[in-house]
Structure formats: structure tokens, C-alpha cells
Design goal:
By secondary structure, the protein is of the alpha/beta class. The protein is built from 11 helices and 17 strands. Helix 9 links the parallel strand 9 and strand 10. The chain is elongated and about 70 Å long.
């Protein structure tokens, strides 16, 4: 697959107003093909793309054309998926706080199932489904109390996290569902966190699910669908060396360690691993400012365009795609009136001057989709490699 180097796009980028997002659709296609080559080996395996990572229409259409379903966490995401051609019966709806109108929208559209996270939510879905003369298919998100080697703000599988239903309450909530005529229990959902690079974490989840299945079978409860969420990370430090995540190791971990029952369906909800490396935030140097002890490259993008560094202290590789000069050390910062508006400290870049184009890499996931209009700034536009 012929990926486009960002330096090769410089002439086109010069004609565009910065800041903007650029998506390498050739790399996205390569990534989607790598995923399908692994999942197609297994009957009953399904991929739902986690829309919260990136909801850009050009990106969504390519994912839909590859035959993926959707993992949505809001009514707005459901609408966007339907507008971009995803079949309703390939949409799963998660989220700890579903509003009534979102539940109504999902039921009316005929989504595949809800990932339910509490008994109060189950009761509301049952009430709304009954009023609409519908039966809601539900899968319960179980908090497996499995840790993950990742940032504290993006772990989701520990007992202290807000997500999911306690393992201790699992059988109780399934029994409640069985008594509700407008509810149909169809599966269990798990997700332990994001940006996970150690397969041991996913292996631990497999063993936990295996134990829970034995417990459920002892109670006469069978589970049609097992949903293991997503969580596979990407290489933020070396995006060119590792543009496609190690899907082989990821999927083989589940094939080897998860003990599925005959006829069970296995669902994955990858987001970052699908789109993270194909997106870059393209910005322009406004000024180079020499302070007493530091040298700043001030660019026209800020935390309004890419929040992750300010929110998580996240690392993104920064490149000057206009210059090949002798490297110097800079802090790369944005124009927002917040001290946390910093993309990189002590960053080694070719000597940078006003007008140079700067690429902030690996920004395809949780970049554009988290953009804001703080400081009354415009939302960034998006362009593709087409």
C-alpha cells in the first residue's frame, strides 16, 4: 500500500488554511485490511468500530465499506453512523448515562443491542421499550476488576471505575432482566481500558471471562454474545516504524486464551488502533520566541484542536515538514490562554522559522473528535489523502 509521506504533501498543505486534520486513507485501508485478515479466520467474530475515536465522515465511510459495525456511546454517534451507511443492526450502544431520547432513537432504529451498565438504566430501557411496544436486546457491561498497564484516566475495568456492573451483582441483574417482558438478555460486555500494549492484560481478561462463564453455567445461564471491548494501543513515539498495530498478537491472544462455547459470538470494539496512526494535525509556526532558558515554537493549533497532551500529558511525535536544517531544541506550544496548552517540551526539530508547517502525529484518534471552540476558535477542518 502506497502511504503518503507528510513531506510529500507539503505543496498541497501550503494551499490550505491551518490548523487542520489530515487523514492518510491509504494507511487506513491498510489497517482495516490487517484487521480483517485476522478476524476472518474465525467464525462468529465481529468488529464494531468505536466511533468516539474519530467520527469524520470520510473516515467513517471507509470503515463502513470494509464491513465493520459501530460501537456508539451517544445518540449523536448513532445518528452519524446511520447517516454514513452503517446498518442499524450492526450498531451497539454503550455509555454509562443514556438519556431517554437516545434510548428511544436506538429502539426506533433497531440497533443490535444495548450495553447496559446499571440496574436503573435497565429499568428505564425496559419502561421505554414497553411504551414503544418494543423488546430491547441488552448485554450487560460487567466490571471484571482487571487492571491494565495504561494511564489512570483511561483504565475502565477496576472496581473503583464508574463503568459497568460489579461481578458480585452479575447474576442478580441477569435474573432481573429475565423477568422483564420488554428486555431480552443477549450477552456480556467487558472493557478494561485504552492504549494497552501488553498482551498479558488481555490474557488476564480472557481468564476472568472464562471463570465467569463457568459460574454462569452453574446457574443455568447461557450467554450468546461475549464483547471484549477494545483497548489495543498504538506506537506514539515511532508512528512511521509501526504504522499498523500488532493485530496478529492481539487477536491471537483471544483465540488462544478465551474459551468460547459452541455457537457463541465474540465482539471487539477497537477505535484508537483503527484510526490513530492515519491522522495528523497540521499546524503552522506563528513565531519562534526565545526566552531566558527555553526556546518556544508557537503554532496556530492548540489544545482546542488536540486536547490529549493537556488532558493526559499524552505524547505525540512532532515534525517540521518544511525544514531539513540543523536540529534545535524547542517547546512546541499553542496560542490558547492556558499554561497547559503545550504539545511537546524539549522537542528536537530542524531549525524552525515563521511559516513552517508542523505535523503532530498519531492524532487520528481522540483528536478532531475532542476539538472545542474554547477562546471562540473555529473547529478544524478535515482533509484526506484522496
Amino acid at each position: 500500500m502506497a502511504r503518503r509521506l507528510l513531506q510529500d504533501m507539503k505543496e498541497r498543505f501550503e494551499r490550505l488554511r491551518t490548523p487542520f486534520y489530515y487523514y492518510d486513507t491509504a494507511l487506513l485501508a491498510e489497517t482495516l485490511a490487517a484487521i480483517k485478515s485476522e478476524t476472518d479466520k474465525h467464525e462468529g467474530w465481529h468488529l464494531h468500530y468505536a466511533v468516539k475515536a474519530c467520527a469524520t465522515p470520510q473516515v467513517l465511510r471507509l470503515i463502513q465499506q470494509a464491513g465493520f459495525g459501530c460501537d456508539c456511546v451517544s445518540g449523536g454517534e448513532i445518528k452519524v453512523c446511520l447517516e454514513n451507511g452503517f446498518p442499524a443492526d450492526e450498531i451497539v450502544f454503550a455509555g454509562v448515562g443514556k438519556a431517554d431520547w437516545e434510548i428511544e432513537l436506538a429502539l426506533e432504529a433497531g440497533i443490535q443491542y444495548f450495553n447496559v451498565e446499571s440496574i436503573p438504566e435497565l429499568e428505564v430501557i425496559a419502561e421505554i421499550a414497553k411504551r414503544m411496544n418494543k423488546v430491547a436486546d441488552v448485554s450487560f457491561r460487567i466490571n471484571p476488576d482487571v487492571g491494565a498497564h495504561t494511564h489512570a484516566n483511561i483504565t475502565t475495568g477496576l472496581a473503583e471505575n464508574k463503568f459497568g456492573i460489579s461481578v458480585d451483582d452479575m447474576i442478580h441483574v441477569i435474573r432481573i432482566a429475565e423477568q422483564l417482558p420488554s428486555i431480552h438478555f443477549v450477552g456480556l460486555h467487558f472493557h478494561i481500558g485504552s492504549q494497552i500494549l501488553q498482551m498479558d492484560d488481555f490474557e488476564a481478561l480472557c481468564h476472568r471471562i472464562n471463570d465467569l462463564q463457568v459460574l454462569l453455567e452453574a446457574e443455568g445461564i447461557s450467554v450468546k454474545n461475549i464483547n471484549v471491548g477494545g483497548g489495543l494501543g498504538i506506537d506514539y513515539e515511532n508512528p512511521d516504524e509501526h504504522p499498523v498495530p500488532d493485530f496478529k498478537a492481539y487477536f491471537e491472544t483471544y483465540a488462544k486464551h478465551l474459551q468460547l462455547r459452541p455457537g457463541q459470538h465474540l465482539h471487539f470494539e477497537l477505535g484508537r488502533a483503527v484510526v490513530g496512526q492515519c491522522g495528523s494535525l497540521i499546524t503552522r509556526c506563528l513565531y519562534v520566541k526565545q526566552a531566558k532558558e527555553r526556546q518556544f515554537v508557537i503554532v496556530d493549533a492548540g489544545m482546542t484542536e488536540l486536547l490529549r497532551p493537556a488532558l493526559y500529558g499524552a505524547l505525540h511525535k512532532v515534525q517540521n515538514i518544511s525544514s531539513l536544517s540543523t536540529p534545535q531544541t524547542y517547546d512546541v506550544v499553542g496560542p490558547i490562554c492556558e499554561s497547559s496548552d503545550i504539545f511537546a517540551k524539549d522537542c528536537l526539530l530542524p531549525e524552525t522559522k515563521r511559516g513552517d508547517l508542523i505535523a503532530i502525529r498519531s492524532a487520528g484518534a481522540y483528536g478532531e473528535t475532542m476539538a472545542s471552540q474554547y477562546n471562540c476558535r473555529e473547529l478544524p477542518k478535515a482533509y484526506t489523502g484522496e
